[in-house]
């Protein structure tokens, strides 16, 4: 047993020494095209080997898709400028009063936090929930955890090491052992496994930490995990039993039956178990194959409002794809479409507006069905929602 522990320790030490993050990925192709977006995700371009595609229809379809994507990116860029101005004005006007949850701020968050402001806003959202815990545990708590993190008796060590390169393989910060994000990701996951030995580590936490590391410092990402696992999500969401996660899948099915009865009946007719697809959406907070802009918009509202956001966006996804799903007439084609559904969610504005239309359903129907401590809608009272509805109408 000691020899096995020594081997694990040696492998970790070697990974740390090689993973200093100094190796740089090329950022452009030979033709000068960007290989990665601003978040570090691969643009998934085809190999530029000089060969022509044999089927001209495939070439035309690919070119059309690229042009549509370019138009959407241009529209998003124009909207980003407008949003940035609103955020700048808000941050200037509120800098003397600190981070206060106001209807104006919530409305802005729902419309998307600009890239340059995400570090501040995400950190403030997290701090609001974990401030008292941090004060109780003391200022050096994370540093103390890191001293214990490589204890080879920790059962999480081996699994974390195995999962590091599986986390976000399409992101340059995590695509190889020498990538800059890998040592930070390892540190955070090991520290959390020491902090919360009941949960330790389960697959899914690596993705949460990796997304948070795109914007936050290492220690802040640790507190982000504490915030999500222990304050936002229900109990037992990431436990070995996954009871909380399974409960949410049942609730989503009920909401789908209420809001989209035709689609729900269609899925039932073909014996589709929706949770085979949606379970990963929830446990990774929509990190699973969803376009980066869409995924980060969900994270903006999730960190600010809580887990009810996941249900709103899930319903919005199904609403947007309803006709396409109804057009599939057998189990395999329906399930295949469901698996591909996240990759289709590129129209951030349309989907975000759609999820706001689900507010009333989530608030009125979800609360009495779901008995748990952090009840959906518990952060907000009806008066605030009424105010927000008026504000949202002016900001879309």
UniProtKB/TrEMBL annotation:
Top-level taxonomic group: Eukaryota
Region (Disordered) location: 1-54
InterPro entries the record matches: Rab-GAP-TBC_dom, Rab-GAP_TBC_sf, Rab_GAP_TBC_domain
A GO MF term: GTPase activator activity
Bias type Polar residues, positions: 21-30
Residue ranges of domain Rab-GAP TBC in the record: 112-306
Gene3D superfamilies, sorted: putative rabgap domain of human tbc1 domain family member 14 like domains (1.10.8.270), Ypt/Rab-GAP domain of gyp1p, domain 3 (1.10.472.80)
PANTHER family per UniProt: RAB GTPASE-ACTIVATING PROTEIN 1-LIKE (PTHR47219), TBC1 DOMAIN FAMILY MEMBER 2B (PTHR47219:SF20)
Name of the protein in question: Putative TBC1 domain family member 2B
Provenance organism: Stichopus japonicus
């Amino acid at each position: 047993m000691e020899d096995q522990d020594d081997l694990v320790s040696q492998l970790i030490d070697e990974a740390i020494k090689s993973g200093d993050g100094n190796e740089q990925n090329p950022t452009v192709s030979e033709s000068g095209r960007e290989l990665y977006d601003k978040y570090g995700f691969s643009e998934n371009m085809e190999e530029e080997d000089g060969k022509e595609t044999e089927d001209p229809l495939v070439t035309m379809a690919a070119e059309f898709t690229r042009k549509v994507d370019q138009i959407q990116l241009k529209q998003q860029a124009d909207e980003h400028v407008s949003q940035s101005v609103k955020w700048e004005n808000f941050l200037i006007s509120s800098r003397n009063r600190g981070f206060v949850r106001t209807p104006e701020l919530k409305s802005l968050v729902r419309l998307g936090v600009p890239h340059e402001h995400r570090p501040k806003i995400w950190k403030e959202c997290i701090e609001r929930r974990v401030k008292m815990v941090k004060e109780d545990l003391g200022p050096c708590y994370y540093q103390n955890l890191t001293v214990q993190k490589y204890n080879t008796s920790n059962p999480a060590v081996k699994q974390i090491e195995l999962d590091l390169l599986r986390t976000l393989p399409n992101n340059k910060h995590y695509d190889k052992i020498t990538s800059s994000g890998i040592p930070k990701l390892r540190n955070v996951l090991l520290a959390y496994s020491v902090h919360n030995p009941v949960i330790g580590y389960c697959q899914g936490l690596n993705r949460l930490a990796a997304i948070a590391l795109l914007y936050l410092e290492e220690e802040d990402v640790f507190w982000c995990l504490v915030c999500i696992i222990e304050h936002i999500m229900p109990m037992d969401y990431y436990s070995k039993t996954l009871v909380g996660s399974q409960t949410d899948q049942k609730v989503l099915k009920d909401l789908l039956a209420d809001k989209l009865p035709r689609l729900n009946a269609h899925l039932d007719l073909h014996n589709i178990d929706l949770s085979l697809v949606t379970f990963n959406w929830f446990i990774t907070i929509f990190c699973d194959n969803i376009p980066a802009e869409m995924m980060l918009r969900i994270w903006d509202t999730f960190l600010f409002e809580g887990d009810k956001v996941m249900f709103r966006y899930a319903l919005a996804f199904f609403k947007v794809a309803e006709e396409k799903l109804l057009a599939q007439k057998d189990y395999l084609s329906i399930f295949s479409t469901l698996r591909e559904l996240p990759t289709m969610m590129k129209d951030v504005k349309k989907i975000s507006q759609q999820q706001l239309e689900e507010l009333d359903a989530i608030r009125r129907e979800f609360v009495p069905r779901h008995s748990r401590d952090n009840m959906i809608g518990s952060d907000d009272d009806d008066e605030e929602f009424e105010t927000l509805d008026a504000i949202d109408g002016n900001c879309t």
